[in-house]
Amino acid sequence: MASIPLSCGGTYRGHGGDLPGVSVGGGRATDGRGTVTVYTTTVAAQGARLAHLQGAVDAALCDGR
Hints:
Blueprint: E1 2-5, E2 11-19, E3 22-29, E4 35-40, H1 48-62
Antiparallel strand pairs: 1-2, 2-3, 3-4
């Protein structure tokens, strides 16, 4: 479990996981604003792929704020 800063303020707590051909990331905003899970059929989320996956979680939690 990690605490990751949100671009719109605050943080979210969550974690990701990888299986061959699948990456999953998700979390819940610490202020209770929402929960999100992102599922993608790419190779393991590392480097730029991890940043993109975390960006999708950030966008889902920060949109509409």
